[in-house]
Write a structure and sequence with these properties.
disordered N terminus
C-alpha cells in the first residue's frame, strides 16, 4: 500500500511515491555517476543543464533526501554495468551473433510466441529478452512490443517498435504495432501517423486501413470536443481540477484574474493547437489526469510560452508574483529558532 499525504492548504490526498530502498539506492548510484561526469567536464553546458533538471526530477520521483546519499555503492555503477553488460574491450559495438546464437534466439522467440498464445505475457517478455540478448533481430523487439501492449505497458511497447524500425526501416508491422500502442494511450494523432507509415510500406493491408480510419475518427471526435473559438482554453482545465482556482491558498495567484489576462489567453489558445499539449489537457479535462499530469502539462506549457513570448511571461511574473497586483503574497518568513 502507498502512504498518503496532503498538500499544504489542500484536502486532496496525494499518494506518496511507490519506491523501495533498493530502487532509491540504485538511483543514488546513477545520480552520483551523472554528477561525476558533469564535474569532470565530460558534458557540454547544454548537457549539464539538462542533466541537472533530470537529477531534480529523479530525486523528486524516487523521494530522495539528503540522507539517501549516505548510501555508498561498493563500486561505481558504470563499472558494475561494464562487468555485466559492457561491450568487449576495444570494441565499439556488440559482436555479430554466431549461427548457434541465431538458432537459439529463434527457439526462444518461438517459446515466447507460445507463451503469448497462453496469455502468459510476463513470461513471454522474458523469452524475448533472452532472444534479444543473443541476436538483436527487429522481429523480437516487435514481438516483445506485443507482449508489452497486453501488459498495458505502452511506452515500453512504443520504444520497442522504434528500436525495431531503427534496425529495419522497412518493417511495416512495427509501425502498425506502434499505432496500436498509441491508440491505447488515446494518442490518436500519433497513431494515425504510424498507420500511415505502415500503409506506405504495405498499401493493401486492410488492418492498417481500418485502424487508420478508427484513429482519424477519434481525432475528429476530439476536435469537436475542443473549446469553441474565443472560449477560455484553460477554464475547463481548472474546472476539472475542482473549479474555484487557488486564490485562497497563501502565495498563489488569483486564478480569476490570471484567467482574465488577455495576453495569456491568446498564447494559451495558440498552444492548445499543439497536438502534444492538446492531448494532455484533454485528458485532464475529462478527469483522466492526476496532479502529476497537471504539473507536467503546466511545465510544458510554461516552457513553450517562455520560448514564444518571454515578454508576456515577465509581465505575468510582475503582476501575479509575490507582492504583485494579482498575487496574494506568501506568509512571512519563519523566525529564527532560539539558540
Amino acid at each position: 500500500m502507498t502512504e498518503e499525504t496532503k498538500a499544504p492548504g489542500m484536502d486532496v490526498p496525494i499518494a506518496a511515491p511507490i519506491v523501495t530502498t533498493d530502487e532509491q539506492n540504485l538511483v543514488v548510484s546513477f545520480l552520483q555517476f551523472i554528477r561525476q561526469k558533469v564535474s569532470h567536464n565530460q558534458a557540454t553546458p547544454e548537457q549539464a543543464e539538462a542533466l541537472e533538471v533530470a537529477i531534480q526530477c529523479l530525486e523528486h520521483s524516487f523521494a530522495l533526501t539528503d540522507a539517501s546519499y549516505a548510501f555508498q555503492p561498493s563500486r561505481p555503477i558504470l563499472e558494475l554495468f561494464k562487468s555485466a553488460e559492457g561491450v568487449p574491450e576495444g570494441e565499439n559495438s556488440m559482436p555479430t551473433p554466431s549461427e548457434a546464437d541465431i538458432a537459439q534466439a529463434n527457439k526462444l522467440k518461438e517459446e515466447g510466441n507460445d507463451l503469448m498464445k497462453a496469455s502468459q505475457f510476463d513470461a513471454a517478455v522474458q523469452k524475448y529478452n533472452a532472444a534479444i540478448k543473443l541476436n538483436r533481430d527487429p522481429v523480437y523487439f516487435c514481438n516483445r512490443a506485443a507482449a508489452y501492449c497486453r501488459l498495458e505497458q505502452y511506452d515500453l511497447a512504443i520504444q520497442d517498435c522504434r528500436t525495431a524500425l531503427a534496425l529495419d526501416a522497412s518493417y511495416s508491422k512495427a509501425w502498425g504495432r506502434m499505432g496500436l500502442a498509441y491508440s491505447c494511450q488515446n494518442r490518436y494523432e500519433h497513431a494515425a501517423e504510424a498507420y500511415k507509415k505502415a500503409l506506405e510500406l504495405e498499401p493493401n493491408q486492410e488492418s492498417y486501413k481500418n485502424n487508420l480510419k478508427i484513429a482519424e475518427d477519434k481525432l475528429k471526435e476530439m476536435e469537436s470536443a475542443r473549446p469553441a473559438q474565443g472560449a477560455n482554453p484553460l477554464a475547463g482545465l481548472f474546472g476539472a481540477m475542482g473549479g474555484g482556482g487557488m486564490g485562497g491558498m497563501p502565495g498563489m495567484p488569483n486564478m480569476n484574474a490570471l484567467l482574465s489576462e488577455p495576453g495569456l489567453m491568446e498564447a494559451a489558445s495558440q498552444l492548445m493547437n499543439d497536438p502534444g499539449l492538446s492531448g494532455m489537457f484533454q485528458n485532464m479535462m475529462s478527469g483522466q489526469g492526476s496532479i502529476a499530469d497537471l504539473m507536467a502539462a503546466g511545465q510544458q506549457m510554461a516552457a513553450r510560452m517562455q520560448e514564444t513570448n518571454p515578454e508576456l511571461i515577465e509581465n505575468l511574473r510582475r503582476q501575479f508574483g509575490p507582492g504583485g497586483e494579482g498575487g496574494q503574497g506568501g506568509p512571512p518568513p519563519p523566525s529564527a529558532p532560539p539558540q
